[in-house]
Task: structure prediction
Amino acid sequence: MKANQFLPATIVIIFSMLISCKKGDNTRFISSINVVKEEINIAYGNHARQKMDVYFPLGYNNSTPVVFLMHGGGYYEGTKEQFTDKAKMFCTEGFVVINFNYRLIDTTGLFYALPLHQLSAVKIADVLQDVDAAVNKYKSMASGWGVGSAKMYMAGHSAGAITSLLYLVNSLNDDGDIKAGGNWGGTTDFSQACDTSVFIGPYAPYALFYKELVYRWTGFEPVPANTLAYMAHSAYWITKTRGGKPTISIMPEVNDFFLRTSPLSTITNTINYHTLLNSFSIPNQYIEIKGENHGFEVLTDSWKNTVHKTSEFFKAH
Result:
């Protein structure tokens, strides 16, 4: 097989079920009746993707809770526009909403059957800096909009969920600006990616693509010698070391192409994360939606219910 042949379509499609936010879903039309003001495409940095939309609910004031939303897409695709309907759902729940884009990794040669091995200029660490810049941009403009920053939260889907939890427990949030986090279909532990025995048997077809992808995400080869580096990119291990913050995870029953009992199962490691939070007596909630998939697109009103349960958790913390 030549190196410039693309990765078989079935592998790309299946992998995308795990890490990307599907562009079409069954979300019902969301009325904007409770969105009384919009500020669209506000730049929070110099890069073209460093833009955010802000939505204000009916009756907003400086005590209105605030939520930052992050779209999914495996760090290589996705836009804030895919989350506009979710943003308006949160407005209906009484939140000011910041829905923002962030920089993506370089995908040059990533989808070849033999992926091109190269570093990406943008990595997860850079995405975390984007999150921090978006938070600070909002804070700098909040008083001018007549809103506050005392009760701020963050939630995301897939890659956006991973980043939301990482930022929540990262030193960038040591000031405690973000009070609680929401994980929708994300993962909490990358360290198993360094276990060379993981990609054997039925998982072998995914090895080259996955290893190249996480290499571009982190800048570290997924080998045993770099396990500590991958732990540093994992909300589970950061929380175990530094402590955590209130977290709600809402997971679909079918969230990954690996078997549920695989070492890389996002369901398994998210359950482990909530067990860890319980051991620290940190408020948390784990919800699994039976019959749902990674895009939250199978059951009617899955997204509406997910936003509602997340907003309830945030208001309580």
User: Anything to note?
Assistant: The first strand starts at residue 35 and ends at 43. The first helix runs from residue 9 to 19. The chain has nine helices and eight strands. The radius of gyration is 19 Å.
